[in-house]
Amino acid sequence: MNIMLFGAPGAGKGTQAKFLIEKYGIPQISTGDILRAAIKEGTAMGLEAKKFMDDGKLVPDSTIIGIIKDRLSEDDCKKGFILDGFPRTLAQAEALEVLMKEMNIKLDKVISLNVPDELILGRIVGRKVCPVCGASFHVEFNPPKVEGKCDLCGADLITRKDDNAETVTKRLTEYHSQTAPLFDFYQSRGVLVDIDGTKKMEDITKEIFDILG
Ligand code: AP5
After folding, report:
1. What is the predicted pLDDT for the residue at 26?
2. Mean of the per-residue pLDDT values for the chain?
3. If we measure between CA atoms, which residue out of 159, 155, 118 comes closest to residue 138?
4. Phi, psi at residue 28, to the nearest 5°?
5. Among candidate residues 135, 124, 134, 93, the one with its CA nearest the CA of residue 110
6. Which residues 6+ apart lie within 8 Å of 39 measured at CB?
7. N or C: which end of the chain has fewer CB within 10 A?
8. Which residues form a coiled coil (predicted)?
């Protein structure tokens, strides 16, 4: 099963991806996570991407498309995958279509998580992430059992560098100008399902499971 999670920053894509991995046993491909790992490793690509990410801007298409080509060719993607945070521009969406055609695979569903901008800021500035295992929490909506500690591995939770009010505003501007138009692109392909992303996390998960079967 090849799935895409689509939505604004903080819409809940990463949160829902974790439940899908568990149920369907397919990998999550988050371009944001891949870029953050490259920054941590100090690669040339990571250092270049960091400038864009810290400023709330999209990383250039050529970098992102290269990342996806490499990642989709890995063995664990053979039984399917969950795209999270990709594609974000028309050029990326078109490149994905070409790539999937070459691989003789298709996109089964695009799950769009619809959350209004006024709720996004609170979600993002309240997010705490685990730098070791990648788990994500929220101080109010999904607090860890022990304050400041990851439930899964016990590491100290951190706030992502781009999770501040000023950068979130820029990320939302990028989303509306470059990414939101892909909603119509995927609707026209007949694969898009629009979900109310303001519901409780577990209700959204159930709805997605019902859609995917
Ligand atoms: P990326 O890491 O992809 O960030 P994003 O798209 O901005 O998405 P987020 O990770 O912020 O949000 P999410 O939807 O996963 O929400 P989450 O589940 O954590 O990208 C970062 C940067 O990398 C970009 O700005 C760009 O520079 C670059 N980049 C990445 N991909 C790129 C690409 N393809 N092209 C170009 N550049 C690219 O939830 C958020 C919070 O809300 C959490 O605290 C969670 O607990 C809480 N929450 C989740 N669901 C609910 C709910 N239902 N109710 C209440 N709270 C909830």
Report:
1. 97
2. 96
3. 159
4. -90, 130
5. 93
6. 46, 47, 49, 50, 53
7. C
8. none
In sequence order, the β-bridge partners of residue 9 are none
Query: Catalytic: 71?
Result: no
Q: 36: CA distance to ligand 1 center in Å? A: 12
Rounded alpha-carbon distances, angstroms, from residue 77 to 3, 86, 136, 172: 11, 15, 23, 30
Can you count the helices (H) and strands (E) in the chain?
9, 7
Domain ranges of the chain: 2-206
Token pair, residue 85, equals 């945070």
Residue 134, pLDDT score: 87
Confidence of residue 155 (pLDDT cuts 50, 70, 90): very high
Residue list, ligand 1 pocket, CB within 6 Å: 7, 9-15, 30-32, 35, 52-53, 56-59, 64, 85-88, 92, 123-124, 126-127, 136-138, 141-142, 162, 171, 200-201, 204
Q: Which atom of ligand 1 is nearest to the CA of 88?
A: 34
pLDDT tens track for 49-80: 999 999 999 999 999 999 999 999 999 999 99
**Has 13 been annotated as catalytic?**
yes
